[in-house]
Structure formats: C-alpha cells, structure tokens
Design a protein that fits this description.
6 strands, globular, Rossmann fold, single chain
Amino acid sequence: MINLLSGPSGNFADPAVSPEGPRETEPLAPEIRERNEQLVDAYASELYDAPADAILEWAHGNAPGPLVVTLSMENTVLAELAERHLPDADFLFLDTEYHFPETLNVADEVENRYPAHTLVRTKAVLSREEQDRTYGPNLYRSHPEACCRMRKVEPLAVHMSPYVGWITGLRRADGPTRANAPALSLDATGRLKISPLVTWSLEETDEFEESHNLIIHPLTRQGYPSIGCATCTMPVAEGEDPRAGRWAFSAKTECGLHE
C-alpha cells in the first residue's frame, strides 16, 4: 500500500484516488433543498437574461440561508456588486498554490477593500510539495483532471457546506462551453447556483472595473482574458476564445467546478 504522503520516485499513488481527508459537501436539510428546487422552478426563466443587480437583489431576498461569493480574482466585479447587494455574504477564493503572484495580490487587496465580507481561502489536503511527492511532479500536466479535482473541486465542495447557494462569475461570453449557462440553477448538492454576470461581455466587465475604480488584475490587460493557475494559463491572441489559453497543452476546457 502506498503511503500517500511519501510516494517514492517511480511508485507514485494513483491520481484517480484522492488523498484521505474531507472532500464532500454536507447535505442540505431536506426542507432547504426543497425550497431551492421551488425557487429554481419559479424563477430560472425570469432571471435568465436579467441584469446583475436584479439577480443579486433577488438572491438577497429569496435565498433560504447564507450565500457565498466565489472569486477567482480574475476580476473583482462580483466583490463590488456583493458589497452593494449581498451585505452578509462571505467571499471564497480557491488558493490552489499554483496561482500567479498577481492573483494572490488581488486577493489581498480584495480582503482589505471589503472588510465587511469574510474572505475564506481554501487549500487542498496536500500542499503542492506533498502532491509532487505523492502523485509525481507536475500532476497538472500529466493528469490535469486529477490536479483540478484535488486542488479546486474538492476544496470547494468542503467549504460549500455552510451555505445554501453560491454566486459565480460565469459569463456566456467566456466560450462555447458556457454559451447557454443559466443565471439560476441547482448544483449537484441542491444548492442554488447564481451567476449574475452571465450576460456580460469581456468589454462590459472591463468597463465596469474602470468606471468604478475597482481592483484590476494586471494580466487581464496583458493578453490574459481568462486566468487560472500560472502553470496552466497562457495569453491568447486577439479574437480567440477567451479561454483558449487555459490548459493549452491539453484538450481540457473546464476545471470541473461548472460541469
């Protein structure tokens, strides 16, 4: 049996098997799950093309419990809108330990600018170094699906437990895999999944940042319209799919958070 914390060279653990530790979301109370289902049935069509402020005001008034705003730090529009419309929501940032330094700087700036919102920073069960020892160096290249599962999907699942729903930065303009994304839906755990920026273009996002003097991720002005881990993100040419620079070394197009 392989010791997951000290896999010797040439005898690495199976990347299909995550290390021991928490990796699932606690189930919602049945009455909360039922209420979420009723809300989606009643309002998903109405909110499909609604403006961001209307979606967030709806969320504030209707969600049957606490919400969390997930921030990739690619842009800070959701943080600003949450400050205006979701005063009680936490912020959540998936710290994969592979981020650009600029992304971590934005996270620090967000924490300072919006002190009324708790910024929850998640990390994987294994540190970056432990993952290399356990599963082999550069798992993001040899098994990108496994790396995203361990460093993004599972940490998000664990930290989603206190909430009845989450606010995401999904935009239909981000590429063909998101072209029909709803503004309101249920995730696999029965939680509300709310995407107030779903109708926004990249240009509208940039304009909002600049006109409201928001914190701007510098790489978004240097050819990186979509930013993930530094190891897996490349700049894209003008006119390309905004997510063309994500996992450019493989056929992968999503990290698993929105599948």
